[in-house]
Amino acid sequence: MFTMRAFIFAVVALVAFAPVANATPQDDQYLAILKERNIGGDPDRLIGYGLAACDNYGTPDLFAGQVEHMQAIGYTESQTKVIIGLGMQAYCPDKLPKPPVPGEAPPPAPPSASVSAPVPAPDPAPEA
């Protein structure tokens, strides 16, 4: 288990610490919102954390490893949630759940597995 954890930390660190060649307007907006929320850090690393959240989403071990890594280097749980959440909004909004639209009916629930076809009535007992 320790070896797997070390591997996950290494992968997260490589992705998060990879330098960003040129900041895009998307990067600038992400960093500005983090700054408004008093979350600081190296801009390249913050961008890396946002991008890594998108890459790691759907892979629980990697995603958890990223969270653990960020908290191990000093970010609070709240800061980690904000960095990851805003990163996903900035870089992969398609992976976030869609909020319900007011006034629109929710989609119908899939049929339950417990619902079955009607059972026919038993044949009447033969008369003696």
Supply the number of structural domains. Answer: 1
Biggest sheet descriptor: none
- Structural class call reads mainly alpha
Q: Which radius of gyration do the C-alpha atoms yield?
A: 24 Å
Helical content (DSSP H or I, runs of 4+): 40-55%
State the total count of DSSP E strands: 0
SSE topology:
Blueprint (H helix, E strand, L loop, with lengths): L1 H16 L7 H12 L6 H14 L3 H13 L4 H15 L37
Written description of the protein model:
Helix 1 crosses helix 4. This protein is mainly alpha-helical and 128 residues long. The protein is built from five helices and no strands. It has one domain. The chain is elongated, with a radius of gyration of 24 Å. Helix content is 55%, strand content 0%.
TL;DR?
With 128 residues, the chain is mainly alpha-helical. The chain has helices spanning 2-17, 25-36, 43-56, 60-72, 77-91.
Structure characteristics:
128 residues, mainly alpha, 55% helix, elongated
